Amino acid sequence: MIHGIFLLVAGLLLTSSSTTTFAAEQKPMHALLITGGCCHNYALQAQQLTNAVAKLAAVKWTVVMEGGNGTRAEISLYDNPDWAKGFDVVVHNECFADTTNQVYIRKITSAHKAGVPAVVIHCAMHTYRAADIDDWREFLGVTSRRHDHQSKYPVKLVEPRHPTLKGVSDKWVTPMDELYVIEKLWPNAKALATSVSEQDSKTYPAVWINQYGKARVFGTTYGHSDDTWRDENYLTLVSRGTLWAAGRLGE
Fold first, then answer.
1. Residues 72, 32, 24, CA angle at the centre, nearest 5°?
2. Residue of 24, 116, 156, 206 with fewest CB within 10 Å of its CB?
3. Residue 107, domain member (yes or no)
4. Residue 109 burial by CB count (10 A; 0-12/13-18/19+): exposed, middle or buried?
5. Predicted TM-score (pTM) of this structure
C-alpha cells in the first residue's frame, strides 16, 4: 500500500482527445484526496476514483494516504493553516472513528466553511463520530454512528434531475455494500437518493448535497466494497459529484 503524500498526473492530467469538450474548455482542476484508516481497500478506491473523474475532466490529483489501518489518526497535512489552498475540491474518504481532538477537527472544518468544496464518501460519515462537537457532522450534512449489514440495496433517485445523477440508472441496485443509518439530515442538506433498511424498514438518505458555510458538499454513504468501486453507476455518481462540488458541471 502507498502511504504519505503523492501526486497523480499520468493519465489524469488529460490533454488527449478522450477528454470531453467541456473539460477541454477549462483549466485543469486541482483536487485533493484524503484517504486511509481502517476497514477498506483505499489504494483501489483512490485508483478507481481518479480514473473515473479523468473520463470527465482534466484533473491534477494530490493524494494523502496516512493513518495506517487504525481509528485514531491525525493527518499531518492539517497542521498547515493553508492545507486546502489551491484546491478546487477536497475528497474525504478516510475512516478514523475514534479521533476526538476538537482543535484538530476544526482545522479541517474551518477551511471548508470558508469556501473549499468537498466530497464525503462512506466512512467519512463515521470519522470523528466519537467527538463531542458537531462541526464535522454539520459539514457532512448528516449524522451517522452505525450501519446495517452488507447487502445489495436498491437505490431510489428522489431528485433524478440533479446533475450529479445524470447517467445513474433509476433501477440501480448496489453491489454488496453497507447502508448507513442516518440519525439526522442537517438543515442545509438535501437528499438526492435513498435506500431502505432491511433491518428496520426505514428509508435513509444514501446520496445528498449540503451547503456548509460557503462550501458545496456532495456525499454518499456507499463505497464499502471493492465491487462497489467497480460499479459503473457508483463511479458515475462519485465522479459527477466531485465535479459538481467543484462547480465544474456547468448547471
1. 160
2. 24
3. yes
4. buried
5. 0.90
